[in-house]
Amino acid sequence: MKNFALKVFLVAMVISTAGLALCKAQTAPFSENNLVFLCFGQSNMQGDAQPEIRDKTGVSYRFQKMYAANSDGTNMGKWVSATPPLCRRNTGLTPVDYFGRYLIDSLDTKLLVMR
User: Do 16 and 65 fall into the same domain?
Assistant: First the structure.
């Protein structure tokens, strides 16, 4: 009897969890605004190439970055144009610089990068 009650309880939990997931999926339909691109790493995301003037111009207003800490005149928590360098002041051009620009050209959404 004890095993039967446990099985019934487990089946009820699985069904209720699946039901909640279906309800949640129906209330939050897929949208391009839900796309997330993670670009993380250590030295491989800092970039080595020094940004040139052409890299710092023509950045769309929809491509923005936010600094996670106050440093070298940057303000934590404030969205600004994503001009290089995207990482720290002394880093170079990162893969995110042109990946972000490509996404902006391809999608109709705003792209936000957090440093």
Answer: no
DSSP-derived letter for residue 51 is P
Sequence-ordered alpha helix ranges (H) in 28-115: 43-46, 53-56, 95-106
Query: 34 in helix, strand or coil?
Result: helix
Does one domain contain both 20 and 46?
A: no
pLDDT tens-digit map of 65-80: 887 777 777 778 788 8
Which residue from 107, 86, 104 is spatially nearest to 95, judged by alpha carbons?
86
- Helix/strand/coil for 39: coil
Q: What is the pTM of this model?
A: 0.60
Q: Which domain holds residue 88?
A: 38-115
